[in-house]
C-alpha cells in the first residue's frame, strides 16, 4: 500500500515526521487574503514596505545562547531565550506598517501544533502568540534590530524563517533563503524549560562538555576510557535530527523532553527499528568494528546519517556514549553513569540465582541469571510534570537493548528518586532499573534430582558502586547514595518493603549462619603477568574445620558470561578455631593469554565444603594494558598548525595482528585512522599528523589501538588552545 493513502480516513493530512522538506512545500512568496471583501490588489508603489535583507546576527546570538562551538553555518539558539535578527527594509517602517516573521518546521506546518509560528509587528502586535517579539532598535537606512523569544516548550529542530509584509490584499514574503534557517535546542539556562539546570558549573559539564570519561572495570579496580562526545562537530546536530526523522517521530512531539529521550533511547540501538548501533557481545567483529575500537560518537553518528544503515558494533559504553552525544547536541543535560555489579534480566525480580553442583563447583548449565561486571547507562536532568512532586531531577535512560518497554528496546526516563524510594508504580521502567541496582544474589546447591537449596544470600553485592564523571575533573563521582539508602538501614528496608508492595519478588530464604568465611584478594595485574590470589579461610567457630576447596577460574566477558574456562584447582585446608589460613594460588600468564580474545577480565570463584556446609567467594581481576604515548607540538592557537605524535612499543612476547590505530579530538581534529598488519615483539610504531585547532579552551586528543588479539589500548593528551 502506498504511503500516499495510508492516512486516509484517519488524518486529513499525513502526520509530519521529517524535519527536511522541499522548498516548494512552504508558503508562496505572495499569498492573497481569503476575505471576499478584500481590496483588489493595487499596483506596487514606491511607498510600499519591502524587505531587502535579513541577517541572523550570529556574532551576538551564538555567545548569548552558548552555541558558538557548533560547526554550522546557520544560527543555533536555545528556546525560551531572546535572540536578535536584523531586518533591512526599503524605508523606515512606520507604526502602521503590518509585517510578521514566520517560523516553520516540518511539512504541513500548523499554528495549532506549534510547527508554524507567527510573530506579528505593527497594528496587529500584542496578540496571544506564545513566541514574543519586539523592536529593539531602529537603525539607519530602514533597518530594525528585532528581538524574538521562542516559547520555552517550542519544538526542537531546524526551522525555516520568512518575513512577510501585509499590503492589505495579501502577504508578500521573502524568498526562500537557507541561510536564515535556524536550529532550536532545549535550554538548560531557561527556568521555564523542563530541562532547566540551576548550577552553571553543571551546565558547563552536562551540556557543553564535548569530551568525557566513561568508567569500566570492577568494584575493586575501577578503570576508565576517554570518550569524544563531539556534539559540536560538523554534521553531528543534523545527524541527531536525522535520527529522529528515521524514527518517524511526529514533529510536534519534539518539544516534549520525555517523549524525545524515550524515542532516542530506542533509536540509538538497532534492535527493532534500524537504529544507530548494532550490539555485539561476542568475539567476532569481522563484519564491522569492535566496540573497543571507537574513539567517540562522531564517526558513528555521521556514518549512520550518511548511509541510513545501522553501524557495527557496540556494547553498553558505546550505546551510552552515542546517546550522550545525541542528548547534549539537542541541549538536554546528560551524563554517562556506570553501575558496577549490575544485575540483568531481572525485570520484576529482585533475585539473581547462582546454582552450584553437589561438589560445590558452579553449575553453569542451569544458571540463567547474570551479573555484569559493570553496565553503562545515561541520566538526563528534567522536571517530570507527569509525576508527583519530588520525582524530577536526574532520570535513568538506557539505550543498550536489554528488555522491551512498550514494545521497543528502550529504557526510561526512570526517576532516580523513585528508584531510591522503591516507587515502582511510576513510568518509565523503574522496576527494571531498581532490580539492576538492588537484586539479592542467592547461592543454591542443586542435588541430583534437580532440587535447589539456598545456602547463602548476598544482599550487598549488586549495585556496589554507581559513579559518573565529576564536574570539572576526570575523577569518578560516587552517586550510589542517589539510587539507594545504606544497605541494611531502616530506610533501605522501607524501600525494599515498598518495592515488594508494587510486585517485585524478593528473596526471603532462611539461610543458616555458618562460622566459616572465605575471601579472595589479588593485587593489580598487568597483561602478561602472573595472577597471584590470596584465598583466606576464616574460622569463627570454637572447633577446627577441614575444608575441601575448589578454585574455578575463567576468562569472562564484562557481561559476566564465560569466554573460556581455566584449569580448576582443588585443595584441602585445615583452619584452627578462631583463626584464619591463607592459601596462595598462582595462575601463570601462559595459562590465560592464549585464550583472551577481546576480554581482559579473569573471574575466580572458590567453593568449599566442610561438615556438609558450603562457602563461596568470588573475585574479578581486570588485566591492565599499556598506554599509547601522545605528544603535541606547535603553537596552541586557533587556526594555527599543530602536530601530534602517537607511539607504541610492543612489550609483549607475541605479535599484535591486524592493528587499527585511530585518533580524534573535538574542536581539534576529525577522526583519522592508520592500519598495521602486525607489530612484532619489541617493535615500535610512530604516527605523526597535523591539525588546525578550531575551538579555544581546554581540549583533548584521544587515540585508541585495537588488534585482533588485544583490545583496549588507548591514550589521551590535553592541551589548552588560545585565540
What are the defining features of this structure?
723 residues; mainly beta; Immunoglobulin-like; Coagulation Factor XIII, Chain A, domain 2; 6-stranded antiparallel β-sheet; metal-binding
Summarize the structure.
This protein has 723 residues and is mainly β. It has 11 helices and 42 strands. The two termini are 57 Å apart.
**How much helicity do the residues have?**
10-25%
Secondary structure tally, helices: 11
Structural class: mainly beta
The number of domains? 4
Shape: elongated
Query: How many angstroms separate the termini?
Result: 57 Å
Beta percentage is 35-45%
Query: Mean pLDDT, as a whole number?
Result: 92
CATH fold-level topology of the largest domain: Coagulation Factor XIII, Chain A, domain 2
CATH class of the largest domain reads: Alpha Beta
- Spans of at least 5 consecutive residues whose pLDDT stays below 50 are 38-43
Radius of gyration: 30 Å
Total strands: the figure is 42
CATH superfamily of the largest domain: Transglutaminase-like
Largest sheet geometry: 7 strands, mixed
- What's the CATH architecture name of the largest domain? Alpha-Beta Complex
Cofactor: Ca(2+)
Region (Disordered): 1-23
Enzyme class: transferase
GO molecular function, one term: protein-glutamine gamma-glutamyltransferase activity
Amino acid at each position: 500500500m502506498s504511503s500516499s493513502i495510508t492516512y486516509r480516513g484517519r488524518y486529513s493530512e499525513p502526520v509530519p515526521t521529517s524535519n527536511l522538506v522541499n522548498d516548494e512545500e512552504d508558503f508562496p512568496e505572495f499569498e492573497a487574503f481569503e476575505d471576499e471583501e478584500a481590496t483588489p490588489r493595487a499596483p506596487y508603489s514606491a511607498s510600499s514596505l519591502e524587505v531587502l535583507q535579513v541577517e541572523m546576527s550570529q556574532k551576538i546570538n551564538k555567545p548569548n545562547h552558548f552555541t558558538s562551538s557548533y560547526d554550522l553555518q546557520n544560527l543555533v539558539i536555545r528556546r525560551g531565550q531572546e535572540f536578535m535578527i536584523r531586518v533591512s527594509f526599503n524605508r523606515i517602517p512606520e507604526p502602521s506598517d503590518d509585517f510578521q516573521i514566520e517560523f516553520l518546521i516540518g511539512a504541513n506546518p500548523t499554528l495549532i501544533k506549534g510547527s508554524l509560528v507567527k510573530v506579528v509587528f505593527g497594528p496587529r502586535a500584542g496578540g496571544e502568540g506564545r513566541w514574543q517579539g519586539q523592536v529593539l532598535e531602529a537603525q539607519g537606512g530602514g533597518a530594525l534590530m528585532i528581538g524574538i523569544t521562542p516559547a520555552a516548550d517550542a519544538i526542537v529542530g531546524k526551522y525555516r524563517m520568512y518575513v512577510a509584509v501585509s499590503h492589505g490584499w495579501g502577504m508578500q514574503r521573502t524568498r526562500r533563503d537557507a541561510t536564515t534557517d535556524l536550529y532550536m535546542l532545549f535550554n538548560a539556562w531557561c527556568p521555564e524549560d523542563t530541562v532547566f539546570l540551576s548550577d552553571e558549573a553543571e551546565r558547563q559539564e552536562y551540556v557543553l562538555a564535548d569530551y568525557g570519561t566513561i568508567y569500566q572495570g570492577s568494584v575493586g579496580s575501577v578503570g576508565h576510557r576517554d570518550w569524544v562526545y563531539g556534539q559540536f562537530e560538523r554534521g553531528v546536530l543534523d545527524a541527531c535530527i536525522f535520527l529522529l526523522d528515521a524514527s518517524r517521530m511526529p514533529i510536534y512531539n519534539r518539544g516534549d523532553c520525555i517523549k524525545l529521550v524515550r524515542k532516542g533511547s530506542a533509536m540509538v540501538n538497532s534492535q527493532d527499528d534500524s537504529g544507530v548501533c548494532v550490539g555485539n557481545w561476542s568475539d567476532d567483529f569481522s563484519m564491522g568494528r569492535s566496540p573497543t575500537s571507537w574513539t567517540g560518537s562522531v564517526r558513528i553518528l555521521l556514518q549512520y546519517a550518511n548511509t541510513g544503515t545501522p553501524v557495527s558494533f557496540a556494547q553498553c559504553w558505546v550505546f551510552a556514549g552515542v546517546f550522550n552525544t545525541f542528548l547534549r547536541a539537542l541541549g538536554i543535560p546528560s551524563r554517562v553513569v556506570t553501575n558496577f555489579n549490575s544485575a540483568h534480566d531481572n525485570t520484576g525480580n529482585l533475585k539473581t540465582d547462582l546454582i552450584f553442583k553437589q561438589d560445590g563447583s558452579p553449575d553453569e548449565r542451569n544458571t540463567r541469571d547474570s551479573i555484569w561486571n559493570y553496565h553503562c547507562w545515561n541520566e538526563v536532568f528534567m522536571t517530570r510534570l507527569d509525576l508527583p512532586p519530588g520525582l524530577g531531577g536526574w532520570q535513568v535512560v538506557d539505550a543498550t537493548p536489554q528488555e522491551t518497554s512498550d514494545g521497543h528496546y528502550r529504557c526510561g526516563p526512570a526517576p532516580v528518586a523513585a528508584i531510591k524510594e522503591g516507587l515502582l508504580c511510576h513510568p518509565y521502567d523503574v522496576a527494571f532499573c531498581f532490580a539492576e541496582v538492588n537484586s539479592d544474589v542467592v547461592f543454591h546447591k542443586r542435588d541430583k534430582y534437580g532440587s535447589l537449596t539456598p545456602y547463602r544470600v548476598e544482599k550487598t553485592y549488586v549495585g556496589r558502586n554507581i559513579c559518573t564523571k565529576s564536574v570539572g575533573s576526570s575523577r569518578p563521582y560516587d552517586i550510589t547514595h542517589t539510587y539507594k539508602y545504606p544497605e541494611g538501614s531502616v530506610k533501605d528496608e522501607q524501600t525494599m518493603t515498598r518495592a515488594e508492595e508494587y510486585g517485585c519478588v524478593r528473596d526471603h530464604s532462611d539461610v543458616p549462619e555458618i562460622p566459616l568465611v572465605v575471601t579472595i584478594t589479588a593485587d593489580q595485574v598487568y597483561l602478561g603477568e602472573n595472577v597471584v590470589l590470596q584465598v583466606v579461610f576464616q574460622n569463627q567457630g570454637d572447633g577446627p574445620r577441614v575444608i575441601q576447596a575448589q578454585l574455578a577460574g575463567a576468562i569472562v566477558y564484562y557481561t559476566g558470561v564465560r569466554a573460556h574456562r581455566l584449569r580448576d584447582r582443588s585443595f584441602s585446608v585445615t583452619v584452627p578455631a578462631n583463626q584464619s589460613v591463607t592459601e596462595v594460588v598462582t595462575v601463570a600468564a601462559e595459562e590465560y593469554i592464549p585464550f583472551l580474545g577481546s576480554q581482559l577480565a579473569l573471574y575466580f570463584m572458590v567453593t568449599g565444603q566442610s561438615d556438609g556446609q558450603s562457602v563461596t567467594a568470588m573475585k574479578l581481576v581486570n588485566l591492565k594494558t599499556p598506554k599509547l604515548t601522545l605528544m603535541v607540538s606547535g603553537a596552541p592557537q586557533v587556526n594555527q598548525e599543530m602536530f601530534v605524535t602517537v607511539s607504541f612499543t610492543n612489550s609483549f612476547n607475541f605479535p599484535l595482528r591486524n592493528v587499527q590505530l585511530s585518533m580524534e579530538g573535538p574542536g581539534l581534529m576529525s577522526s583519522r585512522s592508520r592500519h598495521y598488519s602486525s607489530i612484532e615483539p619489541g617493535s615500535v610504531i610512530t604516527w605523526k599528523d597535523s591539525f588546525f585547532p578550531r575551538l579555544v579552551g581546554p581540549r583533548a586528543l584521544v587515540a585508541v589501538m585495537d588488534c585482533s588479539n588485544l583490545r583496549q589500548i588507548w591514550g589521551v593528551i590535553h592541551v589548552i588552545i588560545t585565540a
